[in-house]
């Protein structure tokens, strides 16, 4: 399985790579890259009032036109401090994040010290095609450029680290070695930037490369304010290869292609354009769609329509869809839109801002996110609560009619207010004092409606409900905060 580059680069051997030639090691300091040093400190989603210990990363940033430096978004997630450093070391300047897109895994950095970047030569972008020999740039400790070459083997649509954003990926084979600053590595073709290494598997020498077309799309969007991001259609589809399924749908030999639309995101672009579940998507503009949801791309051949809709189109573009519905072909105009991460019931990532929480008499209430699920480790899909993982993966279907967010009881901090409840955890909160909980923002208002001096907290699970003494909870809040040395008992924004 492909794993994140910064973990796997540390496992690479310090031996000479096969095929590495003496002329591939340049003695002079490279003129188009800088070292990027970052101190990251993520929030602790198990103890949401605090942060985890800080750690440092080093990477290679690619100089682009306009005094900007390109890196992957993973590098700067939850960054406390960013700086540029010359390849050979010695000169450093503070830097900051100008634009970041965690779904596309790209970030543009800048520095106020423009003199620092003046000696550098910006790289232009160029796409690559299957069979091209690409060069991966690394830096030796003395600043010399180490170049490792390998062929590009495929181009396909795959999920990016944020998990919910499939975009174009190049794959190449190259025997990379461990070097300092190996988190983000430029991939170069004919002296131009073809992409950035996003993942690397040292057991197979296979690299996944974030490609130039995705970078170009990001840079075009970055010129706008506010940044828009990659557009979505808002559908879930499945193949129609089964002859019996095609017969059931009414597809004949005159309609050889088409992909089945199994679900349409409520209030998404496709839904607003008139697309319905059960439609068969036959064509996007003038591009026929095959039975697997692919189309024939001019550069990459057969590839998923996600590339056509997300990378080759922009937020606000109108596409003409041809669908087959109940024996008829229909043409629908759909305006593509980016889906903000805040619109998810269970957000796929939470970076650069703290998680929300509410401590109620020892009950730690939070909003469920995939970032919380990832606290269970690399194998979180198996180790995290099964119901939570299911909700995350099927949220578009499960939560069509709400809530806005899933509020859950993480665990209970023991106190005399929660005797008997200490073992409760991982329970979905449905109501407090009879008020439906659509998000944590509903909690303060619900607590104003105590009945007979009691707060009634209801769950989607066992126990179905518990009670807390409302007066005692209010009186003990400050002493409880001091007892557990919490900086605050709630964060709702």
Any overview of this molecule?
The protein has 493 residues and is α+β, with helices and mostly antiparallel strands. It folds into three domains: 1-229, Thrombin, subunit H, CATH 2.40.10; 231-338, Roll (Pdz3 Domain); 344-491, N-terminal domain of MutM-like DNA repair proteins, CATH 3.20.190. Helix content is 16%, strand content 35%. It contains 13 helices and 29 strands. Strands 22, 23, 24, 25, 26, 27, 28 and 29 form an eight-stranded antiparallel sheet that branches. A six-stranded antiparallel β-barrel has the order 8-9-10-13-12-11. Strands 2-3-4-7-6-5 form a six-stranded antiparallel β-barrel. Strand 25 and strand 26 form a beta hairpin. The model is unreliable at 1-29 (pLDDT under 50).
Summarize the structure.
With 493 residues, the chain is an alpha+beta fold.
Query: What is the mean pLDDT?
Result: 91
Structural class category: alpha+beta
Helix segment tally: 13
- Shape descriptor reads flat
The overall strand count is 29
Rg of Cα set: 26 Å
Strand content: 35-45%
CATH topology of the largest domain: Thrombin, subunit H
Summarize the biggest pleated sheet: 8 strands, antiparallel
Ranges with pLDDT <50 over ≥5 residues?
1-29
Report, as a whole number of angstroms, the end-to-end distance. 37 Å
Helix content: 10-25%
Number of domains: 3
Return the CATH class of the largest domain: Mainly Beta
CATH architecture of the largest domain: Beta Barrel
